[in-house]
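Escalation from tier 1.

The customer reports that the assembly of two entities below gives different structure tokens on two consecutive runs. Tier 1 could not reproduce it. I'm attaching the input and our single run for tier 2 to review.
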Amino acid sequence: MITSTQLLLLVITAIPLLNCLMFRFCAEFPKLTNFVNKIMPVLFAANLFGLYGSLKSDNSYLTLIEAMRGISIGFFVDRIAFGFLVALNFFWLVFVFYSRRFLQISLAKNIDDLMFFFTLAIAFITLIILGKNLLSVLFFYNCLIFLSYFFAAKFLHRGETRFSRFFVFLLYLEAIFFFLAIVATYKFTAQIEFGNGGNFGTNFDRQKHALLLILYLIGLFFSVLFPAYLFYRNINLDTLVLYVFFFLSYAFVSLYIFIKIIAYIFGFHGFAILIKAIGFSVFEGLFLFNIIAASLFLLFSKGIKSSFFYLFFHQFVICLFLIFLVAVFDAGKVYIPIFSFLFSFTLIFLCLSNLVLYLTKAADKSMSGLFYSLTITSSLLIFAFANMLGIAPAFGAIEKFFVIKIIWQKKLLISAMILLVNFISIAILAWKMIMPLFLRVEKSIEDNDLAKNIDYDSSLILTGLTVAILIFLGLVLFSPIINFFEI
Amino acid sequence: MGVVSNIYLIIFLPLVASLVCQALPQKRIIFWFAFTSSVFLFFLLLKIFPDILIYEKIENDFELAPLSLALEFKLDLSGIIFLLLLVFLKIVILVFYRSDIERSLNIKNDRIFYSVFLLHLFALVGIFTSNNFLNLLLFFEIYAFSFFAITSISNDVKLLKISFRYFCFNCVSSLLFLFCFFAVYLIFGEVNFNQISENFSFIAANNSWLTAIIFLFLAAAVLIRFFPLWLYFDKIKSANPIANFLVIDSLFIKTLIGIFLILKFVYFFFHGHLFFVGFDFKPLLIFLAILLIFYSSIRLYHQKHLKLICLYFCLNNLGFIIAAIALRTLESLQAMFFYLLNFALVNLFIFIFATFLKRYFSTSSIGKLWLVAKDNFLLTLPLKLSLFFVASFPMTIMFFANWYMAYASFKLGFEAFLLAALVISNFSYAAVAIKIVNSFFAKQEYCKQPAKDDRQLLYLLSFWFVISAIYSTVFLSGATNNLAIRFASYLL
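Tier 1 run:
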């Protein structure tokens, strides 16, 4: 007999899939699809609200197919999954409201196609988050990779497609290593289920743990730790595509899986012991190389789209580094860098997309003096960069505070260098982007009107403002967030 | 009827049906008779399957019975699994090629074809049930005879030349088998496999060189006779239905028989003694397996023709099967079970789809898949559904195969190289899957669609029949895994 929690789990997984079906079968009724597209994330949120009450119940799992003991496909919800589902739901809402308006103004032809792929990606991400074990996660992760490939093939231009295809092949290589990591986990611990809090328990075996960690790192982050973009020039991905393809489908998902693995396979305590046993400096070296590479490309990038692309890799590497640092030395606060990265990058995405929209439509393609006509967008951009630097009264400041505290207390010189490189590169980028906005340049009446239209458009601005408010609230609410995840 | 009677029926049903075929008057009736006999055989096998699961093997008491063709049989767990797969395969190709075969043959040849088809089935059943060296040799010859009989009714000169070459190899193989037969009789004074197996370790210790020579000769004989894949490489892209029929025989049926015989000889005849204790063949076999896997994976990555893709998939699976035999652990043999399933089901599906493509669009290139997709949703849907299996998604046959193989290879030793082989082969599977899906999204040009005819219904039925069997392994994954464990435990 199916319980109410299991039913809720099924409904939550079905909502994005239903949305996809609506796109396929009701494409001739644009008003209906538009309405459904907006109502579905709201429904999703309502169901999440219902699920919150069942978080501690024993029925928070559902098995669909079981091949043998521990090898099954099914769903499971815990606090980590719930937290990420809420975040996903928020990004879904933001993207739906923002992107439709964005695409309408830019007179894009393939709005429905993009929304279809986006919703399908959301469906698979939801399924990954709700995966009851590593195998379920792998199954839906494979689906997502295939989807990403077709997304890249359909929406990207030739130059970008080449990079994206290469990136997807790297993702597939990752998936193979992830598979090997799961097999190794099963061999060493005889189970791959989430929900037992550190399968290794107290049986620390340095070699086995280290092998697993290496396999998981390659299986989840090879595409980012092996900087594939070094082999390509002038990558100018559309901001919407980058957000769906790289940010949601890759960064969001892999960070979630990694946190689950730390929590349920290694256990936070076991993870800390392992990293210390291997030597934290080994990981520091790896991240330092990556952050320097990303920073150089970021600083020498030309154009908003290109900068946004390198900024993604830059911030993703930093986020990963901070997860390692915080998980090892102050595990309770490991969710702060993750959510800080997710929200600050979303805000940057919204602001830069507004700028890109303006620049594509305006006669004058310069950013000079835009602060006076795109005031709200520019202010939000300044806030976003300040948050990234950790100097605004926002979530980013809390994140940097804890990180600097750890570095200071543990005297981690290379980590301090990584943080410094990050700070300097973001500061320079912010300077390069923000300074021209304040130049006094006369704009034509048409350009001014266009800027005002974008800046006062409810869909384009309210989404950004909401994200900014949440980032600000994070300063106040970081303690309940930490308590919610209860490490 | 008891199990033993059922087994007699299984052995002799195809032979009797083959003779009856000669007396049947009409084309349509001949086909339906052959089809019904094969299906009946399949259900008979299914009927005795639970008994074999319980007892692991059913054999006649050779102490009471004299050496004879009729009585000395043994049907064990591995044998029945192989037989089920092969009879299934035979039914599928019978339906799939029905209209092509009938169109290219007159009534007389048609009758010969179905009669020989059933004789072929009789030989197959005989090979899998015989528990005696002499019987085995006899069934090998019946099998070869029926194969060449089908070849002879094709009017393709090139195919006949290839088949003549194969005939020569077959003769060499027969001589080697005969030599082994005499040698075995001289050493053991027996031709019954059970007796030989029981006394093997004792007698082999005193005749180590002779047993080693028998082993080498047997290996050579099996390889020459049952793995002639390369001989039919040239004809793999052929549109000739008889050629396709024979390619399927060489690629799937012969290979499966070859694998069964290797297992039989390695695990039951030599009892693993010579193979793993006397001489350690493990590193050599793993090296060979890795070579085969790497070669096939690289070729797969660059391949665009579905038939050749299928061929390299088969080679790849074969590489892993060799590795599984060499590793000789419970997990590796479980992996082998799934590689066999993949070999017989997924690869067969790809091959028959490629044949269909070639038949209607004169190409088996995956770049032209959109041609079929355009107007034939139901025909292409099985291919789309099979992509999960090609890309080794979790819970698919290939996934479990890779899972157990990876599990068996996670060791400090040269077995670990198999992990690299797994990575590269999985990568190539994904590349193939992506190429296939890409072709569905390819820019469509104008192309004249072939007229629909009654053959399409047979193709449709065959595709859905195979894909249903493939998907049943997912929905019954619990039972399939249990069977894999039983299979592996039995071999060990």
